[in-house]
Structure formats: C-alpha cells, structure tokens
Amino acid sequence: MEETHGVLGKKKGLPCNINPRDKDDAVAMVLWFKESIGEPLYRDGSFSRHTNYCRLSVAAYSFDVRARSYKDAKQWSSPTVFGSRALFRPSTVPATLVIDKIQQSDEGIYRCRVDFSNSPTRNSKVNFTVIVPPEKIHIYDDKRIDKSVLLGPYNEGSDVNLLCEVKGGRPRPRVVWFLENTVIDDSYDNRSDGVVVNHLTFPNVGRQHLHARLICQATNNNIVPPETKAVVLDINLKPQSVSILTKEKHVSADKRYEVECRTSGSRPDAVITWWKGSRPVKRLAKNFAQQNNQSLSILNFVPVIDDDGKYLTCRAENPAIQESALEDKWRLNVHYVPVVTLKMGSTLNPQDIKEGDDAYFECNIRANPKAYKLSWFHNNVEIYQNVTGGIILSDQSLVLQNVVKSTAGEYTCVATNSEGRGTSNPVKLIVKYAPVCIQEREEVYGALKQETVALRCEVDANPPVASFHWTFNNSGDQTDVSSEKYTTEVTSSLLNYTPNTDLDYGTLLCYGENEIGRQKEPCVFQVVIAGRPSQLQNCSLLNQTANSLQVECVEGYDGGLTQSFYMEILELPSLRSRFNLTTYKAPVFVADGLDPGTTYRIMLYAVNKKGRSEATVIDPVTFKGVAKLQGATASMPVSPLIMGLLGTAGILATGVCLVLAALCRKHYARPCHRPDANSTKHVPMEAVINADDLIVDGSITGVRTPNSSIEHTITAEAIRNGNTIEATDPDIIRNQYERRPLHGFMQVYEYEPPGCREEDDQEDDGEGYAFKHVAKEIHAPSQTMYRSLQRPCRTNPVPPPAIAGSQTLTHKYRGPEVVTTSNRIQESCI
C-alpha cells in the first residue's frame, strides 16, 4: 500500500503499476475500486468470479484495452465517485489515475486491479489522504484592530504586539512569524474552536526597523505554498523644526488665504496640524513631502469674526511620542463685515402685540473696524425716521408707535463699515388686529327671482375669526340674517342667498369677529336683478395691416353676471359673416386672414347668460390691397412727424378758405325780402358749413361718406320729447364721456319746393323757394337748427336751387331730415 496526499480543490494522481511481467504480455484492462461497505457501483459479467470480493469495494474507474490500443482504450468513470473529474494516464511511470478538483469525499483506500493478456491479475492499494489548507490569515493588534493593511505607525523605542489568527485547515497548520526572512516567533496555540493563534511581541523597534516586513505564515503541507500575510512597520521619529512662512498684518473675514508651514527632521513625514486658539483646524490643510526630511503644509484658511485676536498655530509632531511637538504661532488681526443681531425689546411679549400698541427693536453690532452707518428695513424696504408717523430711530434701537396691521412683517437692521454691510437676522413682528375684508370694493351679483347666488365673505384677521355675522339692508331697513343660512369656515363665510320678491334685492353686509374685536368695515355684497350686459364702449381699431386688425373696447356693466365678449366681422355689402371670435377675459379681439381690398362691418357685443348687449358697430373698415403691390415697388416709409405737420397745415388752410368764403358771401349778399326770423327763407352759410363739418361717416372722424351710402352713414334724427331733441345714429361709437344736453333756443325750419306749399302759407323770396318754420323753442345754447325736408309735390316739382356750401345739404333732400347748428346766424339772400 502506498501513501498519497492531495490538496482540496487541487489535482492529484493515484499511482498504479501496469507493467507486465513478461515482455510478450500486455494489459487487457485496468480497474479502480474504492474500498467501502456495500454493493459495487459497477458490475459486469467478466467480474462474476469476483462477486464476493467486489461487494466490499466500489467500482470507481475502468480502462479497457482489450482488442484496442492505449489510444483507443475504452474508459469509464463512476458518476457517483469521480464522474468527469478522473482520467487514467497509462503512459506515465507509474501509470496514474489523475483526480481533478479534489473533494473531501475523495479520501479513502483505492485498489488498482490490472488484468493482463497472459499473466495473472495484479492488485495494488493506495491510501489517499485529502489535505484541507488553512483559510485566510488575519492580523490584529492588542486592541483587536485589524492591521492587515497598515501596521503602525509605532513610536521609536516602543513594543509591537501583534496577533496572527488562522482558521480551518486539516491537519492543523503551523503558524510562524518572520521578520523579513528570519523566524522570530514559531510558538502557536490550537484553540478548541479550530483557530490557530500566534501572539507576537516585538520589543524596542527603532530606526533600523523602519519599513521592515513582519510576515505571518501558516502551512500544513508541502504540496502547495503556505498561506502568508505581510505587514510593514511604520515608525515615527521626532520633528526637528517648524515655522509659518506667511504672516499678514491683518486679514479680512470670509476671504480665503493660503498659509504655509514647513517642518524638518521627522521620519516619516511629520504630522502637521493647525490650531486656532485651543481648537484644531481640520480638513483644510494639504501636506506635501519634500526632500531632506522636510514637509510642507498649506492651509486654506478663511478667517471668521471669532478669530480676531486669536493665535493661528502650526504644530509638527508625532502624536504618539510624548513631548515631540514643535509649534509656531501667528496672532490674527481680523477685519470683518459687521455681525448684527436683532431682537425685540425685552419688555415686550411678541405674541401679544395688537393694533395701537408700541413696539421696539434692539440691534447689537460687532465690527472690526467700527461700523459707521446703521440702516433699518421692513420687509426688505428701508425705513427712515418719521416721528409724526410713529417711527423713531435712536442709536441702535427702532421704536414703532401705535402699530397697525401694515406695521407687521419682518424687520432687519444693517450695519456698514469698510469691509461691507452686515445684515441682521430677521425678526417677525406679529400684530393682532380685528378682521378686515379681503375684497377691496363692493361686489355686485345679479340674480333672478328664485335664483340662488353664493356670497363668500373672506376676511383677513389675526388671530383667526371666531364668528361671522350677516345683515341685509333694503331701503334703509336693516335686518340680521339667520345663522342657519350661512356656513363659517376658517377665514370665510358662505351665504347662499335666494331673492324671492323685489324687496329681497339690496345690500348684504358681512362682519367677522375675533378676540380683538368686530370688523369695522364690513364686506359689502350688492344683489341686483340680473339682466343683459351694457353695450361695449370706446371701441377702437389697432395694429391694422393688409389682412389683420385688432379691436379693443371698454366693457360696461355686466348685468350682474359673468360676461364674455363677442366680435363678428361681416363683409359689405353682402353682409356675409367672415370672422367670429369670443373672448372671456377682456374685450380685446385680434382677427387675421381677411381679404385685402375688401370692406367689412365689425359688430361687437357683450354676452352673459341673460342675453347679449346692443351691438357696437364699426363701419366701414376697408383693407387696402397693400400686399398686391409689394412685388412691384417697395413703399417708402413716411415719418409720423411729417404726416402730422402736413395734416395740421391742411386743416389750417381749410379753415382759412372757409372764413374767406363766409366773408365774401356776406359782402356780396343781397338784402333779404323779409327780416322776420320766424318766416325766413334763408339758410345761414355757417349753419351749412357746420352741418357739413359735423356729419361725417356717422361719426366725427373727419372722413366723408359717398352719396350712395349717405342714407345709413349720415343720419341725424330729431326725436322730439317735450322740449328736448336727441340725435341718434347707430353707427356712431359713443365716447366714454357723455355729451352735455343741448339747452337754449333753437329754431327748426323745413324746406318746401315751389308748388308744394299750402295756399294760405305761400310766401316767396322771389326765386320760388321757401323755408317753413316748424319748431318752437328747444334747448340748445345760442344755436338755430334748420331741418330740410323734401315733401312730395302735388304738381310739377322744381329742383331746389344751389346754395353756397350746400354739398352737405343738397344730396340729403331725398333722405331723412338733416340737422345743422350754428353759434352765429349770418343771413344772406338766395
């Protein structure tokens, strides 16, 4: 029997002599068995004569060479023993059964049976032992700190105490300490928990041991290399000198400085630490190793106000070596922005300040150099002394007299010196006050009878509102609203109000109350009968281009309901709708994609759920074909100033011409046949001129309207109502300022062609035309109104004569009446 050892997880070969005794003999088959109790794993008819023997062994491997060469031999491995891990190598001397990835279960006694062609069978045994190597080595110091990476640093002359622990291994490993290649401790202990321990005491380490290696080795076989763990000794030596290289006369707080400190004579590099006063400065320095046993430390130092007068110290030492430290000190003179602290007066209770009380603040300033200015701020807005307003600044104090709600907020003080401005901490002043309505003005709600509107009363109060109270006022009668009809929330109250009769429309007042008192000014809600909104006012065209425009209007009364705004653009003269737009925020409309060279009418409405307002009409709006000319000639820009000057000159020239025409007509006019003003047949020239100037495009824009559209663009209807007369025109956009009513005396005349007068009233001026006095006194200041009206003639009507300045009157005879006014009546004969 041969003894063979293998290492767990490694590879090992089991020997077997297969050489035949005779030269002419040959191997027929090689069989491997592992002795154990039980039935063999491999059974074949060729082994029937060995049945009794095989029951004590397990067939593990077979190598069949019968009728084959070694190269073509048939091999079989038991799947329960080796499986694919075994391979028989007959070419080695001796032949071996190589086992790969050795397992613990592979240990045991193996029998190799060799069958020859002629010679008897040969059996040999191998006692195979599996060695389990030790696990990873751990090195600890005497404080049970893992030193597997770094050992030390140790002080020069001190003792090194180490503990090497090895777990596992079969058989138990030997644990030995080496200094470099020299054994310094081979004593070890086998503990009951399977751990082998070696305690090392290495006394009096010195400079000669610097960077020396201490190696712990564990081994339990000579097949594989032993497990080792090496640590390097780090030994501290005392520094010899230290100095701060940069020392400023004074430094500024919150600015960064680099302070250098150099030391020498320490081995390894000295441990350089920085101190402010008695406290170390950490994580701000970088140390650099230099030649000749020198070290440099650079401190990124940012002084603060508390550093003023303190010492900045550079200390080089080996902390483990007593009395080894060397120091260099620098006294700091720190200039800093004032440090300001604000607090409320010590005699005040910050939680119990209400309107009408006095409050004061105290500002504490620390500064180097001394502060030369102090400012105060309320909600980040600087405040100044105002004795009459109750703001008093005294030294480093702020006094607020008779505080109100607006006085509340955050207060800060700011001190200034040569280093800058220092702002204090904010101190919040809380002022308790009675409830105040959040809404700034009276809210109007429109509702029909039996329609419920939700009225929300929101107030601002400190402390929060405890209760709400509602009242209703109609025609001077004020009644309380039952608390069952409204609900109270944290800062608001909701009243669902339903008017049932006309007397239920009026004013609802809401009052909140807290511990300070009752709300002085209530929240006001006006409930009115809902209706259609008012007409849009002051509509104007803006930003008109070749195919787009913008219209802006002023909204009127909304009818008590939420309103929207609607614009419709109609193409003239077909009145075909080309553009529709609805907006909800404000009456501002933008339309684009319109056709150049086309005339449009713009209809504008305000709409609520009760209906829409009367239309506001802008008519006509014409888009010139500018876009069509861009390809031919580029237009030359005209200065607005030049256009204004030209327009002004044209107006002045027109006025001069009109005045000259009036003077000439007065000079050449014949005396009138009848001086009676009540029966005059003459139209004053100024009246004609005024009529011509006033009635333009249905508005006062100064653009004349062609005769073809005069019936709907130049219309002034005199509507008699008692002693008043009102001129209305649906195409005129009313100004936001109403015109004053006409008061005074005004005469109205009708024109009659000859042949159409009644017999008893026929009076001629010599040329066959007459004016009939048809109106009495009406209210117009110093003006006379003439109305020309063409009546149907009974026989042979004659056209009216031409009248000076009659381009306005003569083409109006076929339409409605025309009203002209004049402050001065200059008669002339026709």
TrEMBL record:
Gene Ontology cellular component annotations, sorted alphabetically: membrane
Residue stretches making up the Ig-like domain: 1-129, 134-232, 239-333, 338-430, 435-510
SUPFAM superfamilies in the record: Fibronectin type III, Immunoglobulin
Localization in the cell: Membrane
Transmembrane segments: 641-664
Pfam family, one: Ig_3
Signal peptide coordinates: none
Membrane topology: Single-pass membrane protein
Chief site of localization: membrane
Keywords: Disulfide bond, Membrane, Transmembrane, Transmembrane helix
Record domain Fibronectin type-III: where: 532-626
PANTHER family given in the database record: SIDESTEP IV, ISOFORM C, SIDESTEP PROTEIN
Protein name per its UniProtKB record: Neural cell adhesion molecule 2-like isoform X1
Organism annotation: Sitophilus oryzae
Lineage: Eukaryota, Metazoa, Ecdysozoa, Arthropoda, Hexapoda
